[in-house]
Amino acid sequence: MDKSLYIAMTGAKHNMLAQASHANNLANVNTAGFKADFAQARSMPIYYGDGMPTRAYALVERPASDFRPGGLQETGRMLDIAVEGDGFIAVEDPSGAEAYTRTGSLYIDSVGILRTGNGLPVIGNNGGPIAVPAAEKIDITMDGSISVVPVGQGPEATVQIDRIKLVNPDLQTVTKGEDGLFRILGLEGGLPPDGEVQIVSGFLEGSNVNAVNELTSMLALSRQYEMQVKLMSTVKEQSESSARLLQFNN
User: Is 156 exposed, middle or buried (0-12, 13-18, 19+ CB in 10 A)?
Assistant: First the structure.
């Protein structure tokens, strides 16, 4: 009986963790550039020495994120950008390493550094954070080039100051961290820029979370959790019944 109890217990644990993943997706349904996480589990046999496995348990996995692009939302703001199709924007994470994001709500801080909405410096093609001088106007073109009109100057004085580093890695190598940033498995340093990646200015990419699917998945997982708990209760009752029968036989 302990076998069925063990299977039910690990199944219930998986249901709880899967619900947390779907709940996180649902909470980010309106987060710009958010990519939904998949949740799955697989049966793992347990071996005690040689021979056949005597137990099995559910191993929770998060195999990948859903990289399908979200819909474009027009904002008209000159520092809002969205990646068209495949690709990522390179940023510097809190540890100073290179990471990648699809969130394109940018701003310029008090010292002129171009940052994402959550404060991360945007990396240019020179490998460092992009510094933007005081300007009358800022334009970001489809290839990520940043041009400015210096303060007090006219359009004829437009200069290109840098280019946002855009990359397009193999999605099989991309993993998402708990901070929501994407990184490349086993890569030291950063990826080279990809000139084929294009962005559109004045737009933000919306979340690719399907709220209806996430809600129905949570309801289904809730039912599965109740079933696992009921199974554990049944196993307990059967164990108690077996114990009583043994007492009668004695």
Answer: exposed
